[in-house]
Write a structure and sequence with these properties.
Order of helices and strands: EEHEEHHHHEHH
Distance between the termini: 27 Å
CATH topology of the largest domain: Butyryl-CoA Dehydrogenase, subunit A, domain 3
Strand content: 5-15%
Radius of gyration: 22 Å
C-alpha cells in the first residue's frame, strides 16, 4: 500500500507496472516508499558528513582562567583525560564524541546506498542497524549537554569563564542532522520487492 501525498488515501501499489501510477481518488502521482524521504535523508547526511570535520577540528570550548585563555578540541580533551589517569572517562568521551557520529554517518550512508541500489540480501541485519542508529541518536547530544552545563556552572567573573567554541556548534549541528537523517530514512525501502541481485 502507498499513501497518496495529496489526499492521504491509501492506494494499492502494483508491483513492476510500467508507467506512472496515479491515485484513483485524486489523480496525484504515487511515489514509492522512500522516494522523497531517502533523498532528504541523503542530503541531511551529506551535510552532517561535511560538518563532522570542523566539529573535530575547531575547539569545542574556551576556558579563561585568571586571564589565560585555553582551548581544546574534542581529541585534545580526550588526550588530557588519558594523561590525568581518567582512561575510562576518556574512552567514553572518545566513543560518544568521535566514534558514534562517525559510525552513524557511515551506517546510514550504507543503508541509503543499499536502498538506492536495490540490494535484497541481509535485510534483517540492515533493519537492526537502522534501529540501532535511530536509538543511539538521542544519546549523541550528551556532549552538547555537558558543554552547556559547564557554561552555566563555570562562571566566576574575572577568575574563570567558560564559553563554547565553533567546534561545539558544528558538533551540535552534526548530531541534529544525523538524527533528522535517521528519521527521514524510510526503512520500508529495505524490504521493498526488488529483482534478485546478479
Amino acid at each position: 500500500m502507498v499513501s497518496c501525498s495529496a489526499c492521504s488515501r491509501r492506494c494499492r501499489a502494483r508491483e513492476r507496472e510500467a508507467g506512472v501510477q496515479r491515485c484513483p481518488h485524486c489523480g496525484q502521482r504515487l511515489a514509492g516508499s522512500g522516494a522523497r524521504s531517502n533523498s532528504r535523508a541523503a542530503a541531511l547526511l551529506l551535510a552532517a558528513a561535511i560538518l563532522y570535520v570542523p566539529a573535530n577540528w575547531f575547539p569545542i570550548f574556551y576556558i579563561d582562567l585568571l586571564g589565560q585563555a585555553e582551548s581544546d578540541t574534542i581529541l585534545q580533551g580526550i588526550v588530557e583525560l588519558f594523561a590525568a589517569d581518567m582512561a575510562l572517562v576518556g574512552l567514553v568521551v572518545f566513543f560518544a564524541s568521535i566514534m558514534v557520529p562517525l559510525l552513524k554517518i557511515l551506517g546510514l550512508g550504507g543503508l541509503l546506498l543499499a536502498a538506492a541500489r536495490g540490494r535484497s540480501g541481509r535485510r534483517r541485519g540492515r533493519t537492526l542497524l537502522y534501529r540501532v542508529i535511530e536509538g543511539v541518536g538521542r544519546w549523541s547530544m550528551i556532549d552538547v549537554f555537558v558543554v552547556s552545563l559547564l557554561i552555566s556552572l563555570v562562571q566566576f567573573g574575572a577568575l574563570a569563564s567558560f564559553r563554547p567554541g565553533r567546534g561545539a556548534a558544528c558538533f551540535a549541528v552534526v548530531v541534529i542532522l544525523t538524527m533528522l537523517a535517521a528519521q527521514s530514512f524510510d526503512p520500508r525501502t529495505i524490504w521493498d520487492p526488488r529483482e534478485e541481485e546478479i
